[in-house]
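Thread title: Can someone regenerate the structure for this chain?

I was given the following input by a collaborator and told the matching structure tokens would be attached. They weren't. Posting the sequence so someone can regenerate them.
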Amino acid sequence: ADIGFTSSTVPRMIVGISIQSRVISYGACLTQMSLFVLFACMDNILLTVMAYDRFVAICHPLHYAVIMNPRRCKLLLLLSVFASLVDSQVHNLTTLQFTCFKEVQVASFFCDPPQILDLSCSGSLIKNIVTYVVGIFLGFFPLSGIIFSYYKIVSALLKIPLSGGRYKAFSTCGSHLSVVCLFYGTGIGTYLGSVASHSPRKGMVASLMYTVVT
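Best answer:
Regenerated them for you:
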């Protein structure tokens, strides 16, 4: 998922820099947006699944092998793929409904879905519905699950008498927590930021953070 997520934007950006061309065709833009949304959503859900995995490992260690059995892992993986495909197609179908655009310049280094939706000269209702509904279901709910998992993890760690034991248990969550903060902090800020206060430059920096750095 990470390889696909980065590969949907970075190679095209490097080619554009090397040949000094910022042009991308409409079809290529839609393809890039579809792949970007697909892998971004998959990353999003898998980060939530990983938080659940850490919660089970730390809070219910004796039941870990039973709860996180291969069948459940496969089910969670299939769920993430299915939800990602649905999200990708929703963005694609919404964009295909637009018959005219205010301009042809995207204020980002790739075909970022919010930027593409903002280019439409149609009414803002459908754009806002897609942006906020997708943001709630694939942003707010997964993030709430991660926060709840870490709340339970911290509560369990506080019951461990030795500080060394707490550190050892929580150290397994360090890299995951770092990526979660970076991915969700910049991603949700880009998607749910107010249009009135949105700065294209800040948007590009935020997009670079969650598409490349993570």
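Residues 42 and 80 are 6 Å apart (CA to CA).
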